[in-house]
Amino acid sequence: MAAGIGLLAQIVIRIREISPSQELWLLGGFLIYTSLTLIWSPAPGRGFRFVASVAVAVLAYIWGRISGPPSGISRLWLAGAGGMALAAVGLILIPDPAPIDALIPNRMLGMGVIALVVVFWHGPRSRTQVLLAGMLALGIGVSSGSRMASFVTFLLLLTAPGLRIPKAGRVLGATLVVFIFVLASTTTAFQERWSESDAGALLEVITFQDLDSSGRFDVWPEILKTCGATILGNGAGAADLYSRAANPNFPEPHNEYIRVWCDTGIIGSILLWGFLASVASGAVAGLRLGAVGGWAHEAALQMLVSLLLMSTTDNPLTTSMLFMVPAALVFGWSRAVRNRQKSKPSRRRLPQWPREPTTDNR
User: Fold this and answer.
1) How far apart are CA 246 and CA 118, in angstroms?
2) What local confidence, expressed as pLDDT, does residue 88 receive?
């Protein structure tokens, strides 16, 4: 909340610099409509938490558009990465990590580090720095216990522009991971974590016949059945209420597609996913122009892919400070660069971000 007030104060000071666009109308419309659904929500308290998270993300997006991308990575950004690394070490080494998990829940930790590392390795970094940051992020994702966060981190590392991995290398890396995954599937630890029966074969896991979804596959149909098909939605917070009714251990649906559909209906779904589609199209168009600042478009696309993937099994929309604020900032930076490209079109491919000379072995 404090971050939202600070962003709002900065935006009010520079309010005249905000230019209307399709993205802003869609995202602002989603916030307004989600707020209105509190009127008929069966759980307005939980709904207000969702609305507040969206509001902070909207402010971050607007501030990103106003301020534009930074010339480098701020100390605050690096301090956040360091804090998450220490928390991850604590989760692994401390016998009873409950105090750390209460401060930074492990799933939020896995999502938050993705937002930090995406921006970090789009800076003027050497291959060694990018690789070390990626390995650190992957380690934090694994220690958090989030399978999706670990998968997304690896996917982003494999496609990190700073590594400049050729297509053949990416295919080889993916093949190696699949090979390790197959070998690991024969271990007891793998079966206990991934199999519902703690003894499922790999084929049964990957075909969802015996995949341990931690109860998601049981809860999701119940939520959708209760929500029904609606144009207006059941109101912000409804998905949380129905999720807890289906399983007391599920305070949230762990699926943002279901949450948005259930809470805001067809109207809200069109507004939010339309906004993200607009972000994607704008970033792709900006990359084709090839002007300075193209790194912001690459970062926006990677952050967008992360959001879409994690939305299938997690709650990134309500993880405002650790994921959505950084993501919204990056989306705003991409739009700011796109606005500059429109005012000064360039057909020539220019450097994405000035690279510092490095001495490491390439």
Assistant:
1) 36
2) 54
